[in-house]
What we know:
Helices cover about 50% and strands about 0% of the residues. The model has no long low-confidence stretch (mean pLDDT about 95). The relative contact order is 0.21. It has helices at about 5-20, 45-55, 70-84. The protein is mainly alpha-helical and about 80 residues long. The chain has three helices and no strands.
Amino acid sequence: MTHRITKEEVFEVVKRNILEILPDVAPDTVSLDRSLVDLGANSVDRMEVVTLSMEALDLKIPLMSFARVDNIEGLVAVLFEHVR
């Protein structure tokens, strides 16, 4: 039986990448309702978080799928939709 990845696990992957890309962000400030912009990410930072998260989850998702994502919850939702 294979392990089914949970939404919480996807969030942890995203959070780990956010903290790697934005080292000045306190871990307790990364929550689903926050946006990457709120955390100080510029457009390159946001793209890195998306790309690293897809790599960690072994996903290939068209980047346009993330165009309307406005918070971390939305990012997690797009990633989670493709891991199932």
